[in-house]
Every structure is written in structure tokens, then in C-alpha cells.
Amino acid sequence: MINKFVGEHLIPGIIGDNCIFLSFILTFLSFISYTYYNRYVSRILYIINCLLTYIAILCLGYIMYNNYFEYYYVWAHTSKYAPYYYNIASIWEGQEGSFILWIFWESVLGLIIMYFYPKWEKKMMLLILISSLMLKSMILGINFWGVKIGSSPFTLLRDIKFTNNNPGLDYLSNIFDGQGLNILLKNYWMIIHPPTLFAGYAVMIMPYIFSLISLTTKNYKSSIKHAIIWSLISALVLGSGIIMGALWAYESLNFGGYWSWDPVENLSLIPWLVNIANLHILIILYKKQKAHLLTIIFSFISFLSVLYSSFMTKSGILENTSIHSFTNTGLSTQLIIYIIIILLGFLFILFKNKNNLLRNNNEDDLLSKDFWMLIGSLIIFVSSIQIFIATSIPIWNKVFNTNIAPPVDPIKSFNNIQMPIVCIALFVCSISQILDYNYKNIYKILNCTKNYYIIVCTIIVNIIFFYFNNQNLSFIHILLIFISLLNIITNSFFLFKTFLKTTKYNISINGSSIAHIGFGIMIIGIIISGTQKSIISRNNFQIDYNKNLTYKENVLLIKNIPVYSKEHCILYQYDYINNDKNYYKINIKTLYDNAVIEELNLYPSIIVDNNNIISFPAIYKSFNKDIYTYVSIIPNEEELYTEFCQTKLSIGDVYRYNNMKFSLLNTIYEDIKNAQNINSLKLCLKIINNNVEYYAYPLIIYKDNHLLTVPYLIPELDIKIYVNKEKSTDDYFHFSFMNKKNVKNNWIVLKAIIFPYISLFWIGNLIMLLGFLISIFNKIKNGIF
Description:
The protein is of the alpha+beta class. 50% of the residues lie in helices and 19% in strands. Strand 5 (563-564) and strand 6 (568-578) form a beta hairpin.
């Protein structure tokens, strides 16, 4: 095939596209083969399918690493000036890339099933292959009888961008750079958070598969045992992904925290919560052969909630309510079909095998461990239901044509409902450890625990009285701290008691107790850091800087003039530019009786993008407190830049000013996709300064018969280029060139917050994940595989 367009690299795209298509076909053939259970043929087909999938992923990584902007996905997500690791990580910035991550992890699960579970391979692989078929259909990018199926990451730029006009044979000469990674995504968490999160999404299918195995094969004990370990793996992997996302938000976003009850955050939490509830019911089923139907339903809901989360984030429904969601690219219909197929398939299997359900006719004893574990599971499920209902308001409005408004203050709204639920869950965690699956005598229990609980409660009450007495905590906060401490001490005693029973040759650590301890520490960290945080950037002058800012919490800092509060002194010393960020050195001193007891320097930064400030926090971290700072306002453009020259240029013209040379290379007309009555004209200028070339792309935007202009900043030169639309004509464009004033910014507005003992939140999370990990190792040690 001879390529008539100059400079295109079509080979990797052709290979990648064909590998995806062939992989889809082989997945289907493998499904047919497994249906008739020709294991040898099925395995060969599946392994080849996996190899083709990995080749397609390598092709995508190759074109993104090399910035082949002839591919739309590469142009939309990479930049030739970005570090290579960000360009590789850009694979999962878009919808197609996130599906590829999911497909990759699911293919690994298929190989694990072949190796470790040959006994149930047919039934398990059929479910994996159905899921894989649906996911691969999302990235096919083919037209079948006029219906587009999926969106391929190897689609060419000219097939999308130049829909209404001829791109020209050498159109790539006009594409100097891609749009690059979103500024907020340029973070090391972008490299590891999405792969971990989607690994968790993929693994969520395994507990569901094993719950169905227990139903269809009647091999209850063994299949439930495997379901437990995969539920633990799901809790560990997806939980790790969620915590990484919280850390990312805390370190990179300026809302002053790690969790904002954003819809996309909630949708990642719901599957994890349902899985935790299901994990406890699985343990009950394994120990007591009861609640079989409930665990099948919960395992299905946890898997279904992953699909629902994908639909909500990728359909565009949350576009106006979440900063994390994707815009709609036409895949929402396929996602709905996927959900419907999975739902109908589950109902069919459940109805067909309803007689195989384990039934326990014994009455539940109120003093048995399994009863309280079941209560705890239902409480966690109620928590997920509340989050699901509140988060799904946009879809309720769309389906039922209503106009229900989401909570004005989501953090307060969710916290008020979730805190009582967490109280009950913590209480159940603390008392369930002292119970046994066969305890029936209340006097025996009371006799064994009365002294123990007197000691525990005395310790807790004293801690709360001495430390939190003057902290103005509400009743629910005090109750949460009390029950969290009760949970920590109870599980610690149980852990110590279990440890004493082991020998030095057979040391056994109870993973569930460690996870419960971590949960309690995490809740204490949330309560203390959330309720006792203090704003040290108090605005004593009560200047209302901006209607979007709380003026009492943002302080005006004039360079080299300290601002004092009761216990702190804040000083803005200087600013500097590094790469594309402007950093501000902030000196903070902690005072006691007018003496400095602590001094530190922080460097919050900003990027000015299209006249909008994107602020990046700087955080001082220690065990007992974090000091969190970010710049909320800087001087206006008029105060920062001044015009140094102006000229009019036609295409090909050159203008010289001192040692700089400006030339207008060309203009690029763009019909903006998915935007109504909006298009733009991009002007490409080349600037040569001291023999170094720079490129600038100011815009003229046409919107509903109005002209808007967007300037372009060249950070290396501190030059901003404007197009004067009033003075421009069809024959030439009038440009204004502005540079930064010699006097740097002499003031900023800063917000600074102290979060006491927020480290307990992160430590608690790590301990909880460690508990899951220890439980997994214990299961492996006991011969789970």
C-alpha cells in the first residue's frame, strides 16, 4: 500500500488495528470452542488472542512514545515536549486507553485460570470471554451495517479533525505538536494509579465467577474458599487504587483534602464497599453454610457496580458534576448493552440453578459471630446504597425527566449520613472478635469479657477526656472516636491473644484483626484532621478578593512583608519559574510567647492557562500535622504584562524586532468536534530568538457569529501573543506582542491549612491493606491454589 499523505507512519496503526480485530474474532472463537469444551483448541485460541492484544498495546505505546500525531489519540493526549513517561502514561488518559488497561488485566486473569483452575476452566473461561468480548468491542472502531462499534485508538487524525475540508497531502507539516496531557494529570500518580484501579476493576469478576461455580457445580466448600481469596485480592488491589487517587487529589488539587465525595470518586468506592460486605458473607458461608443466595447476589452487585461506574464516567452524564469524568464518545449504548447482557445472564443462571442453593434452616443466634458479621455486611451494603442513590441523581434526572439538584455541599451531606453508619460498623467490628461461631451462652460471654471491657472503656474515656475535652467536637464525632478506640483495642487484644497461641515454628498473624485496626485508625485520622483543622491564613483586613473565595481564609501577602497571626508568621519572599510552573517561596514560622519554635519553607506553584489559574499545593508533612498551602490569586494580566511591539502579518511575512524574528507560517481551520456552532482558526507563528526556534498558536474562535481570541504564552521567553480581531482583515492579521514586566509579582493571595494528625488516615489505610495482604498470604500458605 502506497501512502499518498506525506510523513504518515501507518504500519504500527495497521498492525494495532488488525490485532484488535483479530483478537476480538479469536475471543469469539475461543468462546465457541469452550462451549463445546475442546480444551486444547480453546487454549491455543485464547493464548494467541492474548498475544495479539499485547502486540496492539505495544503498537499503541510505540506511536505515543514517538509522537506520531497522524493518529488522533496520540495528537489528543501527548506532546513532543512532555517527558517520555507521561507520553506512555497518556495511553490511559482517554476512554480507549482505559478499556485497553481493563482488557490487559482481564487477559492475565484468563491465563491464571488456565494454570491454576483446570477443574473449572470451562465455566470460568466462558464468563471471562464474554466480558472480554464486550470490552474489546469498545475499541474495535468499525462500522457494521451503518452502526459504529467502538472507538479505535488507531484512528487517523485526518479522519476526525478534517471532516469538512481536505486536509492536504502534507497536512502533518502544519501539526507541530499535540494537545498533551491535561495539566492536572502531569503527576507521578498518573503512571501508577489508573493501572492499579483498573486491575482492581478487572479482578472484581473473580469472586462473582466463583460464587456462580459454587451454584452450578455444588462444590461449595472449595469454590467458596477460592472466592474468599479473590475477594481479598479485589479489596487489596482496588483499595490501593482508591487510596492512590486520594493521595493524588491531596497532593495536586487545591480543594484542601483527599476526598470530596466527587461522583467519580464515589463510583470507585461503591464496588469496593460491596466487595467488603460480600467478603464477610463469604466467610459466613464457608464456616456455617448459610447466606448462599446473599453472597451470590452481593458478588454479582460488586461486579455490576464496576460496569455501572464505567457507564457513568464514560457516558458524559457526569460531565457537569465531576472533574474526573469523560465526555461522551458514543460508547454509552454499548456499555448499556453490556450491563443488560450480564444482568440477564446472571438471572438466567440463578433461576436455572435455584435448587442448588445451600439452605440453613437453623435460627440465627444473636450471640453468634456469624450473626454480627452478617449485620456488619448489611450495614456496609446500606452505606454503598446511600452513596449510589445520591451519586446517581444525574441519571435519575435523565431517565425520569426530573430536575433533582445534587447536594450543594456534598462533603457535609454525605458525612452526615455516613458517620452514623460507620459508628455501627465499627461497633460490630469490635464486638464480633470476642464472639465465636458457636457461642450461645450469654453468661459465659459476659463472664469472659466484663473485666476486659471495663479496662478498655476506662482507657478510652480517659483518652477522650484529656485530649478531646476542649476540642469542641460534636456528639457523633466523640462517639466515632470512642468506638474507633474500642475497635482498635479489642482487635489488638484479640491479635495478641492469637499470636500467643502460635509456636515459633508456626507463627500466624490474624489479617482480619489488622484490617479492623487499620480501619479504626483511619476513622480517627479522618475525625481529628477534619474537625480540628485550622486555617492559619486568616484575612484580618476582611478584603473580599474574589466572589468565589472565602475571604476570611485567604490572606493577602505582599512580598517581604510578614503577616502575623496568634501562633504563626507567614512571609512571601520571592517567586521563580521552573519549566512551565511559577513557584512561590513561602516562609512559615510557628510562634510561642513571641519565640520561633518551628520554621519551614514551602513552594506552592501555579500555571496560568488561558487566563485561568491552576494551583498546585505545597505540603509540609509530619506525623502530628500537615501544613497545606496553595496560591489562590495572583496579580491580573494587566499587572504582569506590557506590550512591547505590534505588527500586521500575512502568511509568509517576516517581522524583526531587536534580536527576534517573527514569521506567520500558516493558518489552520478547525471544526471543533462535539461543539455546536463553534469553530476556530489557529495561527502558527515561528519566533527565532538567539538562533533558537519557538512556535506559538494564538486562536480566533468563531462562536455564534461572534469572534473571540485566545492568546498564546511562550513560557521560555515570557512572551504572550495576542491577535487583535478588530484590526485584522482577510488579508492580514494584527498581532500584539507582550512580555512580563521587569518587576516581578509583588503580592499573592494564599490559603494555608494545618491538618493535625492527618497521617493517621494514611497509616490506617496502609494497615488495613496490610491486613488484606496478610490474609491472602495465610490463604496461600494453607494451600488455596
